[in-house]
Amino acid sequence: MVIRRVGVLSLARLYAAIAAAVGLLAGVLVAAAGSLGSALSSSGEDLLPFAGFGVLAIVALPVLYGVLGFVGGAIGGALYNLFAGIVGGLEIDVS
Length: 95
Hints:
Layout: E1 2-3, H1 8-40, H2 54-87, E2 90-91
Antiparallel strand pairs: 1-2
């Protein structure tokens, strides 16, 4: 089987979902690092520059990553369709 074309919006949605999940993980890690930095600070100043980012990272990063994933998926799908028309599609073996 050869995949000659992909649905650009379908691929963009898939990329967005994957990127948003990675963004959620990154947001949780940033929030945890910020909390840890604040907790370890003995002088009252934050040890890490993103220590105050906290819970906002858990919301902001998945949204940002999701939007960038959607745009990247749309560009990637369009480029795939363009180049698959020129050099042929992706060949897969299905049993």
